[in-house]
């Protein structure tokens, strides 16, 4: 992995995290909350300056960031502190971080779809010896559903077949405006080492303005779906914890993607890095909304309980829950980082 690849990965991480924290920052300011520090990175401050009441800084370690609000994690008598605001204002501030990640993913999707087009679920060809051809599916047919899942992108087909590897699948497709369906049995392909029904994707096609917006939304939805499905597979034991990747693994993947596309020119690198940003930003948005202590989702859960109860939960008890969550998350991150490093030398 080259130094250039590592630098690109750090830049990508920094932009995604900065946008996440910007969501918290802007909504805090909009709700009249005092922001003591807005920082990128962790650890000692490398560069910092103060403007108004807020210190802006860049920290030594290039991972993470923070929007440190008055009274967010401690008691404060300041009327502009986080905990002095009503529950809906606090909910808006906490939710803004993940929401800004989805905004970022959608914006970058618009750029990627506008420049490179989108791979719609239109079949360009069918392969001999597979169930699609045996069922009469032809080139030019558009797949609209797999079992009960609506399909808008060809990548959704690929991911669905991966998750349901080896299972029969009911394929609903359109031909000349009419819908047809067939139950297909996947066949294992030794060369590609996966189950296939024998259909080939069409080349990406450019879209008009409104179609670009529509398919950009579908792209973000796809990445959100893949994240949620992957979590489900992890919980049900169908995916091992060893398959998870942390910062080291992601940096390695970004580096490999950069090396593979660098020979094709700047535009290819730019689009592939944008696609990586879409994936990571959508993933961060989803993960932060999970009801896990110490994450935005965990804090939102306490606020929702507050709305239902009509009064705040004891701050000391909530703080203890979040502290336990932080310890568990740090332990998981250390395990994943060790696993990522081990994979590099395998």
List keywords for this structure.
346 residues; alpha+beta; Pdz3 Domain; 2 domains; four-stranded antiparallel sheet; two-stranded antiparallel ribbon; 10 strands
Rg computed from alpha carbons, rounded to a whole number of angstroms: 23 Å
SSE order: HEEHEHEEHEEEEEHHHHH
In whole angstroms, how far apart are the ends? 15 Å
Q: Which percent range fits the helix content?
A: 40-55%
| Continuous helix count | 9
Oligomeric composition of the shown chains:
single chain
Question: Largest sheet, if any?
Answer: 4 strands, antiparallel
Shape: elongated
Low-confidence stretches: none
What do these coordinates show?
Helix 1 packs across helix 6. This protein has 9 helices and 10 strands. It is 53% helix and 19% strand. The strands form 4 sheets. The protein has a 4-stranded antiparallel beta sheet with strand order 5-4-6-7, with no helix packed on it. A two-stranded antiparallel sheet has the order 1-2. The protein is α+β, with helices and mostly antiparallel strands. It folds into 2 domains: 181 residues, no CATH class; 85 residues, Pdz3 Domain (Roll), CATH 2.30.42.10.
List the helices and strands and how they pair.
Layout: H1 3-30, E1 35-51, E2 54-69, H2 87-116, E3 123-126, H3 131-134, E4 142-146, E5 149-150, H4 154-163, E6 169-175, E7 178-184, E8 187-189, E9 194-196, E10 199-201, H5 209-235, H6 247-262, H7 266-289, H8 296-309, H9 315-344
Antiparallel strand pairs: 1-2, 3-10, 4-5, 4-6, 6-7, 8-9
